[in-house]
């Protein structure tokens, strides 16, 4: 019997090897939970798609040297950003400031009292460290808000560094083909046909939407620009100013 032991051992090893090879070469199971679209996504409220100003929204008129831009603000979804903007507006913080950064087919940026792109602060700086640690207040990202054409978003230098600067998305070109339908509501994908900048989604707080005056935004975006100190061609040759902001409605 002993002389058969090596043979039996070899057979057992061969069987184990075959089984191991079989399982090693099986395709890895792919969970579909991360690839399937959340059905709730197409049911979320999308306030940007309506020009009507709801009771829980505010409205302001941004008056510029190029004309007026009417914007509604989303207090419900971005309370920090809206309070920051509204407080600055009431205090005249934005009066006579410029759109210091203008890039046609992208956006126009303002809200910096120094006009350099390096200034501005939030209303909570040195007052409430739980909101603003000193670098700016935290982002407020919502599945109800996107950087479609006309979106008003907080400019930042990274996550949770919001101060006073903001930008208005101007790009008018259809960018819907680059949208992942599994992570976007159908109506937002359709809205991106009219322009916007989806690569900004999730990185910048959208807190408002232009409801009148996109022609003014386009006019500002088309202004003649010159190079900045860092070589970016985005500084208006002739200053484009925000003369003042009129608050026409406050959310209830």
From TrEMBL:
GO terms for biological process: protein folding. It is an enzyme of class 5 (isomerase). GO terms for molecular function: peptidyl-prolyl cis-trans isomerase activity. SUPFAM superfamilies: Cyclophilin-like. It catalyses: [protein]-peptidylproline (omega=180) = [protein]-peptidylproline (omega=0). Residues 67-247 form the PPIase cyclophilin-type domain. Gene3D superfamilies: Cyclophilin-like. The chain crosses the membrane at residues 7-24. Belongs to the cyclophilin-type PPIase family. PPIases accelerate the folding of proteins. It catalyzes the cis-trans isomerization of proline imidic peptide bonds in oligopeptides. This is Peptidyl-prolyl cis-trans isomerase. It comes from Leuconostoc litchii.
